[in-house]
Amino acid sequence: MLPALLSKRRKELEQADVLVRETSESGQDSEYQLTEAGHALFPALEAMGFWAQA
């Protein structure tokens, strides 16, 4: 996947409140965490992954 596309998708997930960006105290590093909504989506995404591999 192209970096620009990955960045766009990540921003879309942030806007949809599926991901939240957490910046380190130094301000140089970032991590992304699933929100409550992101955790709620996990079982459906996992099932779709299993279905796609079948």
List the helices and strands and how they pair.
Layout: H1 3-15, E1 19-23, E2 30-34, H2 36-53
Antiparallel strand pairs: 1-2
Description:
This protein is α+β, with helices and mostly antiparallel strands. It has one domain (11-53). 57% of the residues lie in helices and 19% in strands. Strand 1 and strand 2 (30-34) form a beta hairpin. The longest helix has 18 residues, at 36-53. The two termini are 23 Å apart.
Report the strand count: 2
Q: Tell me the number of helical segments per DSSP (H or I, 4 or more residues long).
A: 2
* Secondary-structure content class: alpha+beta
End-to-end separation in angstroms reads 23 Å
User: What's the arrangement of strands in the largest beta sheet?
Assistant: 1-2
| Low-pLDDT stretches | none
- What is the count of structural domains? 1
Radius of gyration: 14 Å
Assess the beta-strand content as a share of residues: 15-25%
Gross morphology: extended
Largest sheet: 2 strands, antiparallel
What percentage of residues falls in helices of 4 or more residues?
55-70%
Mean pLDDT: 93
Order of helices and strands: HEEH
Summary keywords:
2 strands, 2 helices, 54 residues, extended, two-stranded antiparallel ribbon
Brief overview, please?
With 54 residues, this protein is of the alpha+beta class. Helix content is 57%, strand content 19%.
